[in-house]
Amino acid sequence: LKLTNCHIKGAGLEPLRGSIIIEQIDLSLVGEHQRPNISPEPPISREFVLPILDSIIEREGCSLMHLQFPQVWREEPSTASEFHAFIGRYNQMWAN
To answer: 13, 39 in Cβ contact below 8 A?
Structure first.
């Protein structure tokens, strides 16, 4: 799933909740070879998206192998954020 040039908040990803077949989700919102700096900041919301991603990675048989996030999420300075907590859970999924 690639969301190139989409201006979404993330609630529309609800049908993916609990999916065990999706293998790749690109939320970076930019196309290949495009700069990841988006101005204004994209409206995609951690509040909508992270619970959906959590429901995917907590399922036995999860096929999700590649996640790409908006640059603004990756640059968040606080390692205590919900985003960084999700990354920890995703990494733990692969450690098991």
So the answer is: no
